[in-house]
Amino acid sequence: MAQQGQEYAAEVQRVAAGRVKSRSLRPLRQLLPFLLPYKWYVLGAMLALLCSSAATLVVPYYVRGMIDHGFNADDADRVGSYFFALISVAGLLAVATGVRYYFVTWLGERVIADVRRAVFDHVLLLTPAFYEQTRTGEVLSRLTADTTLIQTVIGSSASVALRNLVMLIGALIMLFFTSLKLTMLVLAGVPLVMIPLILFGRWIRTLSRKSQDTVADTSARASETLNAVQTVQAFTHETVDRAAFAKDVEISFDVAVLRTKARAAMTAVVIFAVFAMVVGVLWAGARDVLAGTMTGGALSQFILYAVFVANGFGSLSETYGELQRAAGASERLAELLAATPDVHVPEKPRSFPAPAHGKVVFEDVVFHYPSRPDTAALDGFSLALDAGEAVALVGPSGAGKSTVFQLLLRFYAPQSGHILFDGVDIAAADPAALRRNIALVAQDPVIFSGSIADNIRYGHPDADDGAVRKAAQAAAAEEFIVGLPDGYNTRGGDIGARFRE
Fold first, then answer.
1. Considering the chain, what is the average pLDDT of its residues?
2. What is the largest CA-CA distance in the chain?
3. Which residue, 67, 199, 237, 417, could crosslink 365 as a Cys pair with Cβ 3.0–4.6 Å?
């Protein structure tokens, strides 16, 4: 799983770096690292797809035989064989279709689960600098809505598109064997179908991208508001937030409607063009039957194959829109995975003394937040703290007190200067190793939705119940905890709403 995520991240970073947003389906190739581990499922789905397509393509051949021979008194004994063959073909088609459905649905569920894990694993590595410029709701939208679009493609649309493509190619080949003259007339009309398909497809891709962006904006606003619902209510800001959210929803709706209109127009134009072409060709075929140069069975066979071709074009026009949306979603995930943390683990990280002493030194540190590059949060800041020394940083809001701790925990890297922990420059150490030596009580502590015990052991997941109780007693919290309905097993709810005082 980790290897797949690394391969995916490497691929999307390569594609995202130095490319203008394309209008092709190329971004979907970034899913290949996730599909390769399940190549046998892919192969099974492809074989089932070929079998079902072949069974469908055989039907017109037997229909031709029934018309040309089955209804002739001299060949009455042969009619049963044609119907038996059709029943056999139907059985093969049913089994192959069921197998294909299972394989592609399994692939869709499995691959999207791996993609979501890879994306979540990656965003957890991104530093606060990323979240300073990207709203959490937008990230969640990409993790949910965009991956759902990709799941639809892998578990359905891609299979349908491939089946229609195989049917289209197979039917075209059979048209050549049925009537070369009529087939050439069909091919002459193909450009009339492809031109609107390509033009509308590009427009739909642009609208799909815009639609997904507006959905992300809506999700981001909702997440931001609900996470601060007490503040919203305290300031009686509900009306303003409702109006703002409604505006975002309407913008998203308007873009979605425009995209839907574009897809509907493309489908209508393509289907009309295809069937108009088929009707014209069949008119020419009817004249050949009347002239005696073509049998009724041959014309029926040609009609069925022409319908397959028309249906293939019509279905491809619909699934192409879905593929365009999924390509846009994959592109958005690529941008997310292309984001790299500002703080990296050195190739050969230095180790800290064990046990840690806690000596901290800031040497002429200069730091600018990414969102405020022209304003220094710290400018030439120096500080030396001996092990065991207690120091309070005081000052007005914005003076840089929190910034000191942000840099000490290496959430950010200073533009210049050095920070030492027990004599080791933290820039040369693994940030995770540094943070394991620091205990932090935040100004606004976060309480997760798990139990109280889970929250207490958050920093040490392996801590037993005795250690949890000891920590609660040290924090003078046990009396409050045991008074709750489920004690240490009381669930916190969203951001700890259930056990707040």
1. 78
2. 110
3. 417
Strands 424-425 and 360-368: unpaired
Under DSSP, is residue 491 helix (H, G, I), strand (E, B) or coil? Answer: strand
Q: Is the pLDDT of residue 15 over 70?
A: no
Same domain, 425 and 477: no
Residues 231-252 as b/e (b if ≥16 CB within 10 A, e otherwise) read ebeeeeeeeebeeeeeebbeeb
Asked whether residue 149 falls in the same domain as residue 234, the answer is: yes
SS3 88: helix
Distance CA 139, CA 284 (A): 57
Question: What percent of the chain has a predicted confidence (pLDDT) above 90?
Answer: 1
pTM: 0.62
Distances, alpha carbon 229 to alpha carbons 222, 236, 247, in Å: 10, 10, 19
Query: Using CA atoms, how far apart are residues 293 and 246, in angstroms rounded to an integer?
Result: 66
Structural domain boundaries enclosing 485: 452-499
Given a contact cutoff of 8 angstroms between Cβ atoms, the answer to whether 199 and 23 are in contact is: no
Predicted pLDDT of residue 76: 57
- Last residue within a domain, chosen from 305, 338, 371: 338
Taking the CA atoms of the chain, what radius of gyration do you get in angstroms?
32
Structure tokens at 395: 């000052």
375, with CB counted inside 10 A (0-12, 13-18, 19+), is exposed
Residue 151 burial (10 A CB sphere; 0-12, 13-18, 19+):
buried
pLDDT at 70: 59
CATH, residue 387: 3.40.50.300
Cβ–Cβ under 8 Å, residues 22 and 320? no
Q: How many domains does the chain have?
A: 3
Whether pLDDT at 472 is above 50: yes
| 414 within domain boundaries | yes
Burial class of residue 307 (count of CB atoms within 10 Å of its CB; 0-12, 13-18, 19+): middle
In a domain, 353, yes or no: no
- Whether 343 maps to a domain, the answer reads no
Distance between CA 43 and CA 55 in Å, rounded?
A: 18
Count the neighbouring beta carbons within 10 Å of the beta carbon of residue 394. 6
| Residue 21 pLDDT grade (very low, low, confident, very high; cuts 50, 70, 90) | very low
* Closest to 363 in 3D by CA, of 385, 391, 394: 385
Domain boundary among the residues 384, 400, 430 is at 430
Q: For position 124, which CATH number holds? A: 1.20.1560.10
Q: Is the pLDDT of residue 445 over 80?
A: no
- Is there a single domain that holds both residue 199 and residue 85? yes
Q: Which residues pair with 313 in a beta bridge?
A: none
Q: What is the pLDDT of residues 192-232, one digit of tens each?
A: 777 777 777 777 767 777 777 777 778 777 777 777 776 77
pLDDT at res. 5:
47
Instruction: Please give the angle made by the CA atoms of 400, 406 and 408, to the nearest 5 degrees.
Output: 105
- Whether residue 370 lies inside any domain: the answer is yes
Quote the CA–CA distance of 461 and 122 in Å, as a whole number.
21
